[in-house]
Structures are given as structure tokens and as C-alpha cells.
Here is the input.
Amino acid sequence: MSPAASIIGIGNLLVGLAYSTMCLMGIWETISLYRHRGWSRFGIGFVVMAASCGPHHLIHGWHVLQGEPVTGAMLAATLIGLPSGIIFIWLRIEAALDGRGDRTFTLPVRAAVAAITAFALATGWIAAGTIAYPPVATAWISCTAAALAQRAAAFAGCDLTSFILVTNLFVTITYGMVGWYLADSQSRRHAHEGTWSLSGVALVGIFLTCALMHLVQAFTTDGSTLGFDLLGMPASIYFIWIVRRLHSDSVDDWNRRPAVGVSTVPERRSPWNSIRA
Here is the structure.
């Protein structure tokens, strides 16, 4: 096994464990804190999203370790996505153990713009390379006569490759939109307070790199994750819907709802909260 395959396989297993852990923690917090804070729409959406993403990465990582072909784009996407996932799960576990949890930090605007630019260039290069030189034949996504005929034949024959492409491209778009909304919330927070939320920034990185990893996965031939990819489509629809409502302040959730049944408001704000406590 090549070093790249080992990194991709172990990296996806770690990402899958992180998502699965966040799913279990989300279930526990949503149920245990219901009496005090009501239902968290964001929490429920995060749980159903993580319930599909966790097994997806676990299965993909296991198959890579068993000899599934890998690409340079897979390696790059894995290396970019790991830090955000590790940071976020570390902060969530720390908070669950009554530790400090989230942290705020300052970063000059120029440094933030430079970091965002570097991230955009890296992910854009990976995405462009994946689409321009896919490891499998996926020309049927274009609008030529030959591509339309190939598409019809693929669906008529129940070619798993076509369904893998559609499902992964779908969640690529939805998770990319979630990342954009969360990034905009962090920008508004910085404009108002001059600080960034470490867990919030990590959450932005998780969704943007998750979108990138699904884009890379869309152009592979392995159908082992198809069941969880299909589950991820409705999960991502609900999640983007609630994130958009939170972004537009059209719904109350744990970050803004007064505490129910207790005399004080929660000490920690949710990482997606941009301005108001």
C-alpha cells in the first residue's frame, strides 16, 4: 500500500469517526437539554447530516485501505479537511466535559483575506483538476448528443456510477452553501466584535472541505457508499434550509432562545451565531 493510500484511508476513517462522534453527541445534547432549552433545529439537522457523512467516510476509508484506487485529488482534499475536523471535535468534546470549549481569537483582516485566498486557490485547483481529468469516464454530464445518449444508457442500465455522481454532486452544492452561510456569519461577527470563533471557523472549514471531498468522490467508481449518499440528499436539504433560516434571523434556536426552565441564559454561544447572544 502506498503512503498516499494510507493517508487517505486513515484520514477518512478519522473524519468518519469525528462525524459519528458529533452525531452521537448531538443526539445526547438535543435530548438531554430539551427540558431546559427546547428542541434545537440546527442540532437535529446536524445529527441527520452527520449520520450520513460519518458512515460515508468510514466506508470509503476502509475500502481505500483494502486496495481501492486513489488519486492525488483525494489526498489533497483529505489533508485540507483533517485539521478543521480535529479542531471542531476537540472543542466539542472539551465543552461536553465541562471544559472551556469554544475560543475567540483575533486575526488581522489582511491575514484573514490571505488565508481565505490560499484556501480558495487550493480547493479550486483540486476541484478543477477533478472535473477536467476525472479518473472515470463522466463525459455524460455535458450537453452533447453523445453525452445525452450515454446518460440515458447509464440510467437505463442502473449504472451505479451515474447515481454516485448525482448524489455526491448534489451534496457538494448543498454543503458548499452551508459553508458559505456559516462563513458569512463569521464575517458579520468579526465586523461587529472584531473577533473570530474558533469552532465557527472550524465548522466553516468542515463543510467547505466536505463539499470538496464529495466532489472528488463523485468521480470515482466505488458504489459502496451509495446508500448513505442517498440518505445525505434529504438530510442536506433540511440542513441547508435551517441554516439559511438561522442566517436570516427568521427562526429561534439555542443560540437566541431564552433558557426554558432555568433562571440564567446559557454561558456558551453556538458557533454559527454571528452577533447576538
Summary: The chain has nine helices and two strands.
